[in-house]
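Q: What structure does this chain adopt?
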Amino acid sequence: MKKPRTISIHIPCSDPQELRIAGVPASFWVVLHPDHNSELDDILYKSNFVNICLQVQGGLNHSELAGVYGPSEKGNAVKHAEKLLAAKMEEVKSA
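A:
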C-alpha cells in the first residue's frame, strides 16, 4: 500500500476563516468515530476547511473521521453520530 503524500501549502489570505475553495462548502458537519467516553458534542460538530486543516496539523487522523456532511445535511450527520454512539455503548456494555 502506498504511503499517503503529505503536502504543505501557504495561502496568503487576510482572513483564513474566509478562505474559499471551489467545490468545498464554506462550512460542513463532521462526524468522528466515538470512544467509550464520547458524547454527541465530542463527535459531531460544524467545521470549515481551515479548521479541519488545523485539526489535522494538531493530530486528527483520517481514520478518526466517520463522515463529512454538507451544510444542509445536519439531520443526516446527527443520525450517523447517534448510531455510532449507540453502537459504541453496546460494545462497552458487552465487554
